[in-house]
Amino acid sequence: MTELLTLSATQAAALIRRRQLSPVEYTQAVLAGIARVQPALNCFVTVLEAAALAAAHAAEQAVMAGATLGPLHGVPVHIKDQLDTAGILTSHGSAIFAGNIPARDDIIVTRLRAAGAILVGKTRLPEFGNKALTDGPSFGTTRNPWDLSRTSGGSSGGAAAALAAGIAPIGVGTDGAGSIRIPAACCGLVGLKPTLGLVPWEAASDAFGNYTYAGPMSRSVTDAALLLSVMQGPSNRDPWTLAGARESRVSPRLVGQDLHGLRVGFIRLAANPQLDPDFERDTRASLDAFAALGAEVEEVTDAIDWMEMPGRVMYQGNYAVAMQKHLGQWANQMDPTLLAFVERGSQFSLAEFRQGQYARTTLFRAIQALLERYDVLVTPTLARTALPADFDAANEEVVINGQKCGITRQSFSAYVYPFNLTGHPALTLPAGLARDGLPTAVQLIGPWGGDMDLLRLGSLLEQARPWAARRPAVHA
């Protein structure tokens, strides 16, 4: 079972096509792994044992019959419990939706099924994905398999914990303010927030003002690219995919390993006043790996308004409006952090909210200007390793280098949310291990449509600084 649970999705799909791996045995191993780690990690909302085994038997019959097979045929996958699944609970991490059984699949789920993937479960998130940790009054705490006293990150923390522990090779996360990249960084994974409009986000209440994304999470860059290829494409429910829908492709100059001519801009700090030295060390080591392949690396010295406060106005203001209809009946069962965000968001004026939207445009143009000088931007993904599992995201300040640095968005996760707002693709990769034994991570940001170029650069970094063989303390 251990060998099966270390397979990549790419390896597993190839073995299944060659009739060297049984989809049934593979799925059984994944389900057994879930049973082993779920009590410690609390990463799944729903485990679809019967449905997954039935799908695995059907997948095996298709292989034996010589049927045409999709790129993920027989490969187990889990999906964050924020995407609709027909006939399967979609709770959004909230007691409000504890009985919500959608009638239709989200288009991403439809595409995964069409590609032959086997859905083994739905993974946890904080209520409506509101914070950078995964916990809530309706389900408790999802923990980091590297250290159970730490958070797995949020809001795709269930997916990250499961993947790091070896449960399925790929998972679907969502990212509204870093919610793929934060948990991926906390747990030593690859996570991509795609370009706005590349992958549909059908759950948006405001499709035109959207800055939430669905994206791949995995233990390898190749698997992230494979999953992205299945997820991407237009949806009639998402106008951004209609306006700019196109497949992301690798630039010819990045096909090989010669990076001469590639211009890399290193951003050491965003809105955060402090950076953990282990994160800085491993980020600089990643930059050195690019330089060794010929890239020109330069530190960005431009003064950039990272719009921390205007971004907070937009984020909390949106929650204040979205949650208003639930407060009368459900406030006593809602996450205190979410309620604090709603309360703060309700105090902002329309003028402040519109100023936040203007700041979003200003930030977009600032990043565009940088990407005229640089082909890729590089930052640490986070400013420190995973926070304590019981961290109070509403009221507690993050401590970095012995200094209190403000709330999570000002400090811990300052590097990620800006690129939700600008729409640029952003990829996080494992970069090393810190002195506390937890993963560090580096983030690559590229121009709109540059998703595959980021993945290609990520694969070169993965080769130069291998990671996938490292396993956390808790694993299936």
Strand order of the largest sheet: 1-3-2-8-10-9-16-17-13-11-12
- Tell me the Rg in angstroms: 21 Å
CATH class: Alpha Beta
Distance from N terminus to C terminus (CA atoms, Å) equals: 8 Å
Descriptors for this entry?
476 residues; Amidase signature (AS) enzymes; 15 helices; alpha+beta; 11-stranded mixed sheet; 38% helix; single chain
How would you describe what is shown here?
This protein has 476 residues and is α+β, with helices and mostly antiparallel strands. The protein has a single domain, classed as Alpha-Beta Complex (Amidase signature (AS) enzymes). Helices cover 38% and strands 16% of the residues. The chain has 15 helices and 17 strands. The protein has helices spanning 2-5, 9-17, 23-41, 49-64, 107-114, 157-164, 181-187, 221-231, 239-244, 277-292, 308-330, 336-345, 350-373, 417-422, 451-464; strands spanning 44-47, 76-80, 118-123, 135-136, 140-141, 143-144, 147-151, 170-175, 190-193, 213-218, 263-266, 296-299, 376-380, 399-400, 403-404, 426-433, 439-445. It has an 11-stranded mixed beta sheet, with helices on both faces. A two-stranded antiparallel sheet has the order 4-5. Helix 5 (107-114) links the parallel strand 2 (76-80) and strand 3. Helix 3 (23-41) packs antiparallel against helix 4 (49-64), helix 11 crosses helix 12 (336-345) and helix 11 packs across helix 13. The mean pLDDT is 97.
